[in-house]
């Protein structure tokens, strides 16, 4: 069964600095999707970025980028120029074609002014 | 605002009771997904409906059931409630049938079983 591991329960970053959140996953599939979702205090889950496994190029969305290492089954999220509004729980998720989306336990990011 | 509406926002009930959680997807979205978020289990996929039909099933207990109506809103029914069912229940929607598309989440229903 696929699993998603986020080894950092909590992280903190100074405003305007860069932080990297780690995620590893386990799968026997070759075609799958990876996601980072953000859950601010409002509780609503918001998609931050998505990566398709067959694409070698790392996905980027403005200040958010990923480092996708398929062989290592690693999918880290880099947040550049951190802002106070980035403070939230961040969840890494993996989806394969069995319609089974698995989430990691989450990393709580604190942004210090 | 994601466009996904969940009601009620909070629900407090007793063990053994039955509750119904409601979800209205974004306009035009055909898929509805239900997730449970708890401290010990994390975020778990329960069930998906696509255009009125059950599409995928996750870790949903037999005491739980769901349906999607012709107007595409969905209800999650939880019966014979136990203390361990206390959790945040999310509904999400997407245009198509695959969650690798962008999922839009509601704000959740916080269920407390006392």
Structure write-up:
Chain A has 113 residues and is mostly beta strands. Chain A has strands spanning 3-5, 10-14, 19-21, 24-26, 32-39, 46-52, 60-61, 64-69, 74-79, 88-96, 100-103, 107-112. Chain A has no helices and twelve strands. Chain A is globular and about 40 Å long. Chain A starts with a strand and ends with a strand. The model of chain A has no long low-confidence stretch (mean pLDDT 93). With 114 residues, chain B is mainly β. Chain B has strands at 5-7, 10-13, 19-24, 31-38, 42-50, 53-57, 64-68, 74-78, 87-94, 104-105, 109-113. In chain B, strands 2, 4, 5, 6, 9, 10 and 11 form a seven-stranded mixed beta sheet that branches. Chain B is globular. The termini of chain B are far apart. The model of chain B has no long low-confidence stretch (mean pLDDT 94). Classes of the chains: A mainly beta (113), B mainly beta (114). At the A-B interface, strand 6 and strand 11 of A face strand 5 and strand 9 of B.
Which helices and strands appear, and what pairs or packs with what?
The complex is a heterodimer of chains A (113) and B (114).
Chain A: E1 3-5, E2 10-14, E3 19-21, E4 24-26, E5 32-39, E6 46-52, E7 60-61, E8 64-69, E9 74-79, E10 88-96, E11 100-103, E12 107-112
Parallel strand pairs in A: 2-12
Antiparallel strand pairs in A: 1-4, 3-9, 5-6, 5-10, 7-8, 8-9, 10-11, 10-12
Chain B: E1 5-7, E2 10-13, E3 19-24, E4 31-38, E5 42-50, E6 53-57, E7 64-68, E8 74-78, E9 87-94, E10 104-105, E11 109-113
Parallel strand pairs in B: 2-11
Antiparallel strand pairs in B: 1-3, 3-8, 4-5, 4-9, 5-6, 7-8, 9-10, 9-11
């Amino acid at each position: 069964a696929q699993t998603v591991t986020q080894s950092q329960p909590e992280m903190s970053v100074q405003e305007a600095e860069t932080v990297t959140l780690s995620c590893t996953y386990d799968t026997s599939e070759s075609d799958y999707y990876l996601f980072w979702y953000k859950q601010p205090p409002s509780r609503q889950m918001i998609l931050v970025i998505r990566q398709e496994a067959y694409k070698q190029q790392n996905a980027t969305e403005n200040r958010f980028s990923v480092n996708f290492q398929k062989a290592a089954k690693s999918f880290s999220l880099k947040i550049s120029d951190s802002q106070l509004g980035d403070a939230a729980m961040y969840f890494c998720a993996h989806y394969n074609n069995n319609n089974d989306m698995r989430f990691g336990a989450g990393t709580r990011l604190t942004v210090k002014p | 605002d994601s466009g996904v509406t969940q009601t009620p926002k909070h629900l407090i009930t007793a063990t053994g009771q039955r509750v119904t959680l409601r979800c209205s997807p974004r306009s035009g979205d055909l898929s509805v997904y239900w997730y449970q978020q708890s401290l010990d289990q994390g975020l778990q996929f329960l069930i998906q409906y696509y255009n009125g039909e059950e599409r995928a099933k996750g870790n949903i207990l037999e005491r739980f059931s769901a349906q999607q109506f012709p107007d595409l809103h969905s209800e999650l029914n939880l019966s014979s409630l136990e203390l361990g069912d206390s959790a945040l229940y999310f509904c999400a929607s997407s245009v198509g049938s695959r969650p690798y598309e962008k999922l839009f989440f509601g704000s959740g229903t916080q269920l407390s079983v006392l």
